[in-house]
Design brief:
heterodimer; A: 183 residues; mainly alpha; Rna Polymerase Sigma Factor, Chain: A; B: 320 residues; 3 domains; binds zinc ion
């Protein structure tokens, strides 16, 4: 059953139709949020769930002019941005303390198998992606991890092809610099 | 004519397969014959590989529980919680763009007290959402929240929730009121950390004051010490440092044993106050605690000999 039909059934009040729609998209929504939040599973779970609820509440606004998936991405991006904004400066201060403490932890010795290096690399990459400006992080995540074309990203973010291209290019430039030890 | 500059600008699109066939061939041909551009392309491809090598997650999610939670939340939302039609502040515009739809009638309001209780036990994301929603609830909701916050009979967790929500307000007066309430001595059993946290834009003074208070409690001391350490490092020899030292002196000189313990905790954590502690050897009522601290810190005992202590710590820090 396609998205359009499911959405119609939900609007008609059919029991369980919304759950079906969630099942269809939850893994991708979660994966996207996981990337967006810099690899925080708890946050990703909560964000993606809230995204579905927001989509449900605003389903009347969804007319099928684009894929449900793109619409959901857009909702998630807006939710995530709202959340970042809502975080007070205090959170940033606390975050700095935590990073400070974490950075002073003793590094564990490599077992030689490269597993540690891979884990460390994943952490570093997530951290650097998280540190990107919002728009760059969003474009990069949608393209690299969700596989959206520049054109589709433009639809999700309401911006032009050239904006997408520029932000992706800026994101890559930053990441190359930030990850130069690994690239 | 294809210049390197024009090709460089298109390498990302080339790698991402976004170019039309003509342009694609143009780039391919240039890169095949230009080492500099080829190097650039390989660098982009390596970055892409590294980014894609980072695994996602999903094993941790129990998907059926996930579905039922979302379903239940959606049904609750339909019945109406708080006064929100659009839960996404900045998203309102975009929804308007997707369709011009008439707004549904406002759902019945949930009692504020229930919302505050939910807030008290909610995770960070849900809290942020309630805070945002509250800001749009209008004057009546703010009045009600303020009334709850100021009511002495409000249970502490609910009061703290009200304070935190109001402290996130965009209205400066509302925020001021909440902060004022937060600085008042916390009600018995209230979550002091929550109160501290809402000092939305705390000055160093305020942070130091709160943090020092919290070093007196076993459970909050570690985080409070981290904060003090951070402030101290930032303001090395500055007013913050002087303020901390002054307050620590006060603590160490206190009649209350807990205060003295907190003072020494701070000194030990900050690792910069040995010299100050040496000075304490002159202060009556403080001498014993200082001596005890110095002995333990140094594994030596120079008694009341300030010069000897100073020389010892200078030697030690010189070696480090
Ligand atoms: Zn070239």
């Amino acid at each position: 059953m396609g998205d359009a039909e499911l959405v119609l059934r939900i609007k008609q009040g059919e029991q369980g139709a919304f759950e079906d729609l969630v099942r269809l998209h939850m893994k991708e929504a979660f994966a996207f949020c996981f990337r967006l939040t810099g690899g925080r599973a708890d946050e990703a779970e909560e964000l993606s769930q809230d995204g579905f609820v927001a989509a449900y509440r605003n389903l009347a606004a969804f007319r099928g002019e684009c894929a449900f998936r793109s619409w959901l991405f857009r909702i998630l991006i807006n939710l995530h941005r709202d959340r970042l904004r809502a975080r007070s400066r205090w959170d940033k201060v606390l975050g700095a303390f935590r990073r400070d403490v974490e950075s002073r932890r003793e590094p564990v010795a490599d077992d030689g198998g490269g597993a540690l290096r891979a884990r460390e690399l994943a952490d570093v990459v997530r951290e650097k992606v998280r540190a990107l400006p919002d728009r760059q992080r969003e474009v990069l995540t949608l393209h690299v991890y969700q596989g959206l074309s520049y054109h589709d990203i433009g639809l999700v973010l309401s911006c032009s092809y050239d904006d997408v291209k520029m932000n992706l290019s800026l994101a890559r430039k930053r990441l190359r610099e930030a990850l130069k030890e690994y690239v | 004519m294809t210049t390197c500059t024009s090709i460089r600008g298109a390498l990302g699109e080339y790698m991402d397969r976004q170019l039309d066939p003509l342009r694609r061939e143009e780039v391919r041909a240039h890169v095949a014959g230009c080492e500099a551009c080829a190097v650039e392309l390989r660098a982009l491809e390596r970055l892409e590989q590294v980014l894609k090598s980072v695994p996602g997650d999903g094993e941790s999610v129990r998907w059926e529980a996930y579905v039922s939670r979302v379903g239940a939340a959606a049904r609750r939302a339909r019945r109406g919680a708080w006064k929100v039609i659009l839960p996404l502040g900045a998203a309102a515009l975009f929804f308007a763009g997707w369709a011009r739809w008439a707004s549904t009638p406002a759902p019945p309001e949930r009692p504020l007290s229930a919302l505050l209780d939910e807030y008290a036990s909610a995770g960070a994301a849900r809290r942020a959402q309630i805070e945002r929603d509250a800001g749009r609830g209008g004057a009546a909701d703010l009045q009600a929240l303020i009334a709850i916050m100021l009511d002495a009979h409000t249970p502490p967790p609910r009061q703290v929730a009200a304070v935190r929500i109001l402290a996130s307000s965009n209205d400066e007066r509302v925020r001021g009121l909440a902060l004022e309430q937060a600085r008042a001595p916390a009600a018995e059993g209230a979550d002091e950390w929550a109160l501290l946290e809402i000092g939305a834009e705390p000055t160093d003074d305020e942070l130091i004051e709160h943090a020092i208070e919290l070093t007196k409690r076993e459970d909050t001391a570690p985080e409070a010490l981290r904060i003090l350490r951070k402030i101290d490092r930032r303001g090395l020899n500055g007013p913050a440092h002087a303020d901390i030292v002054r307050r620590v002196r006060g603590l160490l000189a206190s009649e209350v044993e807990g205060d003295r313990r907190a003072g020494l905790r701070i000194v030990a954590a900050l690792e910069v106050l040995e010299e100050d502690v040496i000075e304490f050897l002159d202060v009556p009522g403080l001498r014993e605690a200082a001596l005890d601290f110095l002995r333990r810190r140094a594994g030596q005992d120079f008694g009341a000999d300030k010069e000897a202590w100073r020389a010892y710590f200078a030697r030690r820090s010189g070696k480090m």
